């Protein structure tokens, strides 16, 4: 599966509010799960992925991710990866292998990036 998030500024009671949209997509079937949060902490990401696992009814063997500090502390060019302890414990609990994209190479998880382009066009049109 692949995971990503995007932040959106949405009007709530006439005031802009930053909302984070989480997307988890199964790489083979392309089945998608979306949820939102008002912050983007490691706990928010773990809740989103755990909710997706419940929604999908099972666990994928691996998860393809970017390299945000909530999940990856360091990803050196020589391939050494240091994970956020809380995120690594979560993945270990579920037996999920993590596959972070190479730094500055997010396009390797294109399946999860494409729907956000659609979101952007829908939200932009509705907010005008």
UniProtKB/TrEMBL annotation:
It holds the Pfam family rve. PROSITE patterns: INTEGRASE (PS50994). GO terms for molecular function: nucleic acid binding. InterPro entries: Integrase_cat-core, RNaseH-like_sf, RNaseH_sf. Residues 1-128 form the Integrase catalytic domain. One of its GO terms (biological process) is DNA integration. This is Integrase catalytic domain-containing protein.
